[in-house]
Structure formats: C-alpha cells, structure tokens
Amino acid sequence: METCRRAISLILIAVLLAPVLSLGQGAPKGSPSSATDSELARSRNDVIQKTMETRAGAETLLALHEAEVKRITAQYERRRELYHQGLISRSEVIQAELEVAQARLRIEDDKRFLAETATALTELTMRDELLRLPGVALGGYSETNTLLRFNGAAGFTLAEVDKIGRFFLQSFGRGLPISALGQTATHERMRFDHRNAVDVALHPESAEGQSVLNYLREAGIPFVAFRGAIPGAATGAHIHIGKPSPRL
C-alpha cells in the first residue's frame, strides 16, 4: 500500500511541475497559448489514467488482504479449539488473535486509501468544470448534471463536524462516513487548500446524502456535492462540506 501511495505522489508531483518546467524551457516565439493548454490537458489525462491504474492495483491488494483475513481467522479458530483441548498454550491463541487484528487493520487502511484516491480523482477531473461555472450568490443554490453547489451564508469550520456527525448518527444509527477531514496528504500533493473542509463519502442522490444536503442547507453551511466524474470507474461521488478548495 505504501508503494501505491508513493506512485500516486510521484505522478501528481510530475503533473504539478509540468507547467513550471515548460516555463523554464521557454516557448517558441509566436506559439499559441492553446499549445500550453493542450499540454496541460494531456498531462492531467495522463495522471488520471495512471492514478486509475494504481487504484486498480490497490483494489487487487485489498482482495488479497481480505482473503488473508479469512485464512488467519480460520487459523485463530483452530488454535482456540486446540487450546480448549489443552494441546497448545494460551500465548499461541493470543498471537493468532493479534494477527487477525493486524490483518483487519490492513484492510481498513486499504479502504481509506481507496476512498481518498477516488475523491482525488473526482476533484482532479471536475475542477475545470467547477471553475467554469458562474458564481453563486450568497445563500444561492446551483445544480448541473454532475455538481450541486450551495453558497451558504453561515460559513463552515472543522469545529462543526461533530454537530453534523451527531445529526447523522441520530438519523441513521452509524457514524458519518468521512473520507477526508481537513488537509490531507492527497490535498497537499494536489496543492488544494482543504484545511476548512470535509469530504463525506455519500452519494448526493442517496437517501443519506439527501438528508445531509438538506441539513446543510437549513444550517446555511456551504457545500459542493459531486455526483461522479469517470465513467467505468469508481465515481468518487461525495459531499464536500465547506467552500470549494482553492489552490494553495
């Protein structure tokens, strides 16, 4: 999994440096600015493709870790039975129990990484569309086929996450599925300022997503809800609570 993270880091850094390197080399006299735009578009498409490939590798790794958990859990159950029969020591059972716990933690880490990557892909692919849209007046709402925006007048800080979490817990009996709380390593690599924003892994058209969006609008809290961006891939649909992330 660490290898996957390093791969994505290198890909994103390469794309971010591409404009700087091209400036250093200098453009031919009289070349149209559209050439640079085209190069940047190709670079972005390249990073999207490579990140999707890395994500596919991470999904394969998750499947392997899930199979490993099944194997280790079966081994743990066998050791428990042998212990009750007096054939092995308690320390061997404890060791097997520890291995199960560690394997489950690896799965949780895999899932967090996949959620983070899906969100990064969505933000990267849809950023230009978001920037092209006209501004929304304070308290205004806007909706397209892929984006829902609300420019709440109340503003938002991370201190309000607990309040939203309590609402969600009372409504659905589970914790708010946060995929990114404040600034993350992914947002640093993408040079996005996410310090006062939260990403919630809910599809905006789901019952849970609609409930959260209604809550945010009633509370005057701004948001951008992404329906998805990449056909044929994990969409990364989520709700970005807070103002849109500007570039650092």
Your description of this structure?
The chain has helices at about 1-25, 35-85, 90-130, 160-170, 185-190, 205-220; strands at about 140-145, 145-150, 180, 200, 225, 240. It is built from six helices and six strands; from the N terminus they run αααββαβαβαββ. β1 (about 140-145) and β2 (about 145-150) form a beta hairpin. It has a six-stranded antiparallel beta sheet, with helices on both faces. The protein is globular. The protein has two domains: about 1-120; about 135-240, no CATH class. It is α+β, with helices and mostly antiparallel strands.
Task: Give the structure's gist in a few sentences.
The protein is α+β, with helices and mostly antiparallel strands and 248 residues long.
The general outline is globular
- The helix-and-strand class reads alpha+beta
Low-confidence stretches: 8-31
Q: What Rg, in angstroms, do the CA atoms define?
A: 22 Å
- Major β-sheet annotation: 6 strands, antiparallel
The domain count comes to 2
Helix content: 55-70%
Helices, by number, come to 6
How much strand content do the residues show?
A: 5-15%
Average residue-wise pLDDT: 79
What is the H/E order?
A: HHHEEHEHEHEE
Q: How would you write the strand order of the largest sheet?
A: 1-2-5-6-4-3
Number of strands: 6
Distance between the termini: 27 Å
